[in-house]
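Researcher: Batch entry, complex prediction.
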Amino acid sequence: MTHANEPLTALDTLPKAIETDPGIPDELRNNVYTSKVAAVVNWARKNSFFQYPFVTACCGMEFMSAAASHYDIARFGAEVPRFTPRQADVLFVVGTVTHKNAPILKRVYDQMCDPKWVVAFGVCASTGGFYDNYATVPGIDHIVPVDVYIPGCPPRPEQVMDAILYLQEKVQRQAANLR
Amino acid sequence: MSQQVLDQIVKRFSDSVLSTHAHRGDETVVLHRNALVAVVQFLRDDPQMAFNFCVDITAVDLSAMPDYVGPRFEVVYHFHSLSHKHRIRLKVPLEEADLELDSLSHLYGGANWFEREVWDMFGVRFRNSPDHRRILLYEEFVGHPLRKDYPQRGYQPLIDMPTLPRPDEELPPLASEDL
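Model: Structure tokens for the complex:
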């Protein structure tokens, strides 16, 4: 994965065979793109994340700040929250997850349709944070697979946007599972 | 501030008061458990006392205190009078072998949730409680985690978490030591 300082744009990731292929007639040049299905599907997916915010704790405040108009994650196509996991493809786990609500998180994740991704928002979701005790799950990756971890207590909005960019890169590079 | 409350309790319930102390305006009465309901009834109903607010009920496990001999647990009550603006603290020592105490739920409706928390965390039983379930932890939880002999990482997961560290695993070194 390249660093987020050098983000991939949509066109960068689409193959440019059309520009170099001498067999393409002139009238098609600049009018037709050829690509791989995976590249196009992933390009569409990564620019239209539908998030499910699983908000359990104080990080929720920072999540609201990052998601609202001031920081405007609509720029990344990730602004629409769905309040049923069946309509979402990114699970944002925002806050501390205890053993008491671990089964709920697992169930929410299981209800999401493929393809789906998980973001651990904040240090508690990532590792349990400073709640090193009997009640807290030391990181949600003991329950569900995590794609991007955002450290911080709470994370700054810049980190959230960075995470969305990382996730976009990850989605662009994965195999398109067309089921 | 509530020295006269303390004096009144000592005067009326001298047989049941084990000791008293006051530190910078925090007056405390250590009571025998058999007198608890009578004392609290007096504190609530006497017009000079008028303690209409049960601020908090909690407990202390003293077993880890150095050089301490005496009953292992103390149940601690805080009361406040909104009209007289005075406060009082009651402490009731309890032996580990006989962790039972009268409920105050019939005097203060809110006492029930505090008592459920004390039961949940310390395992103190409250006689005549209208509802004696755990309040924070789940039904399946075994033991009472704020007792000093409960392991810090005594996880009791509700779902299968094969990667969860065992309670006896060594704590990772603190990051600050590396700096």
